């Protein structure tokens, strides 16, 4: 039986949602939760039991950058025994929007014995109406368990064909850095306007930077080795570990070069999908799994070897989970690669125009200025 607790503190918070699309419009400011007090100081064990009781400052525990207070040593011991269960879920991200949108500690809800926080009262309303839409679905069974030897063999063949289609093994494996500048159509009150965006990826150093142009300047999100921050013309904020990890994921999940560069890892599994009798068809599909954290369906053009579609389960424009598919076309030679210069993106089969991009330029293996990945002075 579900038990939900919504506190009266929710009504006192007013946050204006700027947008929910991670690559189109500025989102809500990321929350700096390092050593912050969790849940306004309420004991999480008591909250789960439907009671709002302030904890004691001399009975605390730290977990994922948050300090929790407890009314008793017994509650503290219970929390420390399983902090993933009793602490704020999703690393403090908004339970509706996820991605890199942080939640507020005074916008909390208990759902099925776990505590979630939110970025706005609107997010609370959406989640309360249909929580199953916003909680990540269970992953499918591993391909190691479900794919046949023939499917695995054919899957590796298709991945090798895709490597050739992107420019060859030497080009793919020798890729240390990649800078892609694109144009996106950003929705505004005056209609759609073209806006510039850049993805700066340092594969070797595991550093990622996303830049978006807005009228007042540049918005930048940075993830460096598990840490991150965002910066705008008006200031900067530290990312929580969950936000930094999600930014890195966003930067690579639909990048064909990243996917193919991972092919020699032990945790990379590829299995042909669909009817084996259709091997002579114009296109072939392959399921790909990496580290148990990534799962893609790639559609590969049989003639050219180029990847025409990348599909995966992720959040949609409104934060609910479904199938995101990137349709890649207009392949041209750039940076030593045969690169798709146009993307059309759908969510559950419906087009999302402002997620699509057109590549303006692509550079590879360029030396990146260290300043791009330096933490802003005000955050040091």
Write the topology of this structure.
Layout: E1 36-37, H1 44-48, E2 56-63, E3 66-70, H2 73-81, H3 83-86, E4 104-111, E5 114-118, H4 121-129, H5 143-146, H6 149-166, H7 169-173, E6 177-188, E7 191-202, E8 207-214, E9 217-224, E10 227-232, E11 235-238, H8 241-252, H9 256-261, E12 268-273, E13 283-290, E14 294-301, E15 307-315, E16 321-334, E17 337-347, E18 350-351, E19 357-364
Parallel strand pairs: 1-3
Antiparallel strand pairs: 2-3, 4-5, 6-7, 6-19, 7-8, 8-9, 9-10, 10-11, 12-13, 13-14, 14-15, 15-16, 16-17, 17-18, 17-19
In CATH terms, what is the architecture of the largest domain?
Answer: Clam
Got a strand count? Answer: 19
Dominant shape: globular
Low-confidence stretches: 1-34
Question: What is the count of structural domains?
Answer: 2
Straight-line distance between termini: 46 Å
CATH topology of the largest domain: outer membrane lipoprotein receptor (LolB), chain A
Would you tell me the overall average pLDDT?
Answer: 89
The named CATH superfamily of the largest domain: Lipoprotein localisation LolA/LolB/LppX
Q: Return the string of H and E elements.
A: EHEEHHEEHHHHEEEEEEHHEEEEEEEE
Q: Tell me the structural class.
A: alpha+beta
CATH class of the largest domain: Mainly Beta
Largest sheet: 14 strands, antiparallel
Strand percent estimate = 35-45%
Quickly count the helices.
9
Q: What radius of gyration results from the CA coordinates?
A: 22 Å
Helix content: 10-25%
């Amino acid at each position: 039986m579900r038990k939900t607790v919504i506190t009266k503190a929710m009504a006192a918070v007013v946050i204006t949602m700027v947008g929910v699309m991670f690559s189109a419009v500025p989102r809500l400011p990321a929350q700096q939760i390092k050593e912050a007090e969790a849940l306004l100081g309420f004991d999480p064990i008591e909250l789960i039991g439907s009671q709002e009781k302030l904890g004691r400052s001399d009975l605390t525990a730290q977990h994922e950058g948050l300090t929790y207070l407890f009314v008793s040593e017994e509650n503290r011991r219970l929390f420390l025994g399983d902090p993933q269960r009793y602490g704020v879920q999703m690393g403090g991200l908004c339970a509706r929007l996820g991605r890199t949108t942080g939640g507020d500690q005074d916008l909390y809800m208990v759902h099925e014995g776990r505590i979630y926080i939110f970025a706005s009262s609107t997010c609370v309303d959406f989640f309360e109406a249909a929580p199953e839409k916003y909680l990540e679905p269970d992953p499918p069974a591993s391909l190691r368990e479900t794919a046949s030897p023939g499917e695995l063999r054919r899957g590796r063949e298709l991945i090798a064909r895709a490597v050739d289609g992107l420019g060859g093994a030497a080009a793919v494996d020798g890729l240390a850095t990649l800078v892609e500048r694109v144009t996106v159509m950003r929705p505004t009150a005056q209609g759609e306007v073209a806006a510039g965006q850049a993805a700066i990826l340092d594969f070797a150093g595991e550093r990622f930077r996303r830049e978006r142009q807005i009228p007042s300047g540049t918005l930048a999100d940075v993830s460096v080795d598990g840490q991150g921050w965002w910066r705008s013309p008006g200031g900067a904020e530290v990312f929580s570990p969950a936000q930094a990890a999600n930014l890195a994921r966003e930067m690579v999940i639909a990048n064909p070069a990243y996917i193919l560069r991972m092919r020699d890892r032990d945790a990379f599994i590829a299995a042909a999908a669909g009817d084996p009798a259709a091997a002579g068809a114009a296109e072939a599909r392959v399921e790909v799994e990496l580290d148990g954290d990534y799962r893609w369906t790639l559609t590969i053009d049989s003639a050219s070897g180029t990847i025409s579609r990348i599909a995966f389960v992720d959040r949609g424009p409104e934060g609910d989970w479904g199938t995101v598919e990137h349709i890649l076309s207009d392949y041209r030679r750039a940076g030593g690669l045969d690169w798709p210069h146009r993307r059309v993106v759908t969510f559950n089969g419906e087009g999302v125009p402002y997620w699509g991009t057109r590549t303006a330029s692509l550079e590879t293996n360029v030396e990146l200025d260290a300043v791009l990945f330096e933490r802003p002075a005000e955050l040091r």
